[in-house]
Amino acid sequence: MKIQLLGNCTILLSSKNSQILFDPYFNNFGNLFYKRTASVSTYYKSIDHLDAILLSHEHFDHMDIMFLNKFKNKCPIYSPKGSLKPLIFKSKWIRKGDELNIGDFSITVVQANHLCPTVGYIVRAEGSTIYFSGDTYYGKFMKSISEKFTIDIAMLTVTRYLLPMTMGEKGMLKCLNDLKPKYFIPIHQDIAQRFSLNNSKISFSRLNDKIMEENLSTKTVWLNNGDEFKVTPIKN
Ligand SMILES: [Zn+2]
């Protein structure tokens, strides 16, 4: 299995026979209030087949209108119950606890606590278990995720501005302490406030230092846009 970061929270997950995409967003501008701080990987232009698109929520930086329009008749699009904008693209509503079988992937929909209806996803394939948190604050539900699943790789949203709209650094550490994943991939790293001095200086070395201070054995994997991480089944 292969994880490829195409920018911000856009993750392409490929197994031997299947390919799914999380939270597509390919606009280099951002919006009036938020700017994009790193260029999108253009790899998305060559994607012609997907088995599904999974959205964590309907905020602008998680759903690319042009891309969803292109794929709305080609593959199922899933979005959390109560999200309205994705319905334009024939999305199917899902909720916490739902199980999806998409090609090689067995997916469990999990809780996420954000400003609008949001979900996270646990994905199992080829002997590994991956957690895509979606935009979420730290929550006690993460402990119950850790009781049900042994997470090999956690992709967590750590926003770069204050007040954090996601778990931020502190929540990230609590989440890592709950889940104890073997690898941690920080996502949501491309968006900063346009008119604010409140953008923090989260960097790889700083996140790494904080994780080391917690005595966790989790390894941080910093992906630049376009980078791939090859997932081989991890033996305990
Ligand atoms: Zn977001």
Q: How much β-strand is present in the residues?
A: 25-35%
The chain-level mean pLDDT equals: 93
Radius of gyration from CA coordinates: 16 Å
Measured between the Cα atoms of the first and last residue, the distance is 18 Å
Assign a percent range to the helix content. 10-25%
Give the class from helix and strand content and strand pairing.
alpha/beta
CATH topology: Metallo-beta-lactamase, Chain A
- Classified by CATH, the class is Alpha Beta
Number of helices: 4
Along the chain, the helix and strand elements come as: EEEEEHEEEEEEHEHEEHEE
Query: How would you sum up the global shape?
Result: globular
Supply the CATH architecture: 4-Layer Sandwich
Number of strands: 16
Largest sheet: 7 strands, mixed
Q: Stretches where pLDDT falls below 50 for ≥5 residues?
A: none
CATH superfamily heading: Ribonuclease Z/Hydroxyacylglutathione hydrolase-like
Quickly count the domains. 1
Strand order of the largest sheet: 7-6-5-3-2-1-16
Q: Hetero groups bound?
A: zinc ion
Protein name: Metallo-beta-lactamase domain-containing protein
Domain Metallo-beta-lactamase: 6-188
Keywords: Hydrolase
